[in-house]
């Protein structure tokens, strides 16, 4: 019955807790917001700051939400004086680096919201990373 | 990076205004990150579009007012709402700090008439500022006006595809009350910078007229 030793159990619990915390903090997200859309507009954009807290690259490959018809990772690009959007199939977050999703750059393209969203509402979107890490993020709708 | 560009723009703005006071219109020739002024503004020629009240929007609609024109489309989640929000703040600032906003108008020209009906446009622009005007029309006439301003755009229309992409310039074009292409604001746009530059432009033009 050595495995029932209280110290051992405590150690095991502590290790489990540390592992869980590390997994959760692998990539942290802050300032997550979605721009309120003008009435009738069917396309919205989501922004955030991602921080990779691990010593290895993390690759964002998808974003999903049941609140929209389609969610895609896009980037606003300027080519030859013309501004447009292009799909970003994967984005690498370098070790311990931050990445901005901001107006005029990377954004979540949110198409066909299932209900009208107004400033103050909350939108849930899951971010998926290569290797299976999935992070649920709550976005605040702002004007 | 963006901050330093914005800072440089702010300083060059103050510099432009100061120099203007000292050296009159010579300031017009100084380089600027925010606005490019044309020494010899080009008068526009006839075009015919429709505004969001279903009224004709043509050359006469530009006369007697300073017009800020921005080309875009409503299925644009990032750049268009960002720019229109900046322009709404610029208008507020102009209205507060200067002779007023009675002789200015902000016009959002949709290059995507296939999806942007005039009623849709009205809802869209009203959201940003109820004084904003949404304008569109047939493709040849949009191209006519855009061509006169060198406003590039490309509609990658694909039948059956709901979300075909549209590429467009994000510059804001300034037409003077004589319907001449007077200046262009280059991105990234900042409401205060636009407001301050416009003040100088309007003062210069008032000086020229007398």
Q: What is the succession of H and E elements of chain B?
A: HEEEHEHEHEHEEEEH
- Give the ordered list of helices and strands of chain A: HEEEEEEEEEE
The whole-angstrom Rg of chain B is 17 Å
Total helical segments of chain A:
1
How many domains of chain A? The number is 1
Based on the structure given, which CATH architecture of chain A is correct? Sandwich
> What is the residue-mean pLDDT of chain A, rounded to a whole number?
88
How many extended strands of chain B?
10
Please list the strands of the largest sheet of chain B in the order they lie side by side: 1-10-9-4-5-6-2-3
Rg of chain A, alpha carbons:
19 Å
User: Quaternary state, please?
Assistant: heterodimer
**Percent range for helical residues of chain A?**
10-25%
Query: How widely separated are the two ends of chain A?
Result: 61 Å
Full CATH superfamily name of chain B: Glutaredoxin
**Percent range of helical residues of chain B:** 40-55%
Q: What is the approximate shape of chain A?
A: globular
